[in-house]
Amino acid sequence: MGLYYPVEVQQKLVHYIQLIARWNRTFNLTAIRDVTEMVSKHLLDSLAVQPYLEGSLILDVGSGAGLPGIPFAITCPEKHFVLLDSNGKKTRFLTQAKIDLKLDNIDVVHSRVEDYQPVAETGDRIYFDVITARAYATTDQILQSTAHLQDKNTVILVMQGKLDQSFDRTHYRLVESHPLQVAGLGADRHLLEIKKAD
Question: Does pTM surpass 0.70?
Answer without folding.
Answer: yes
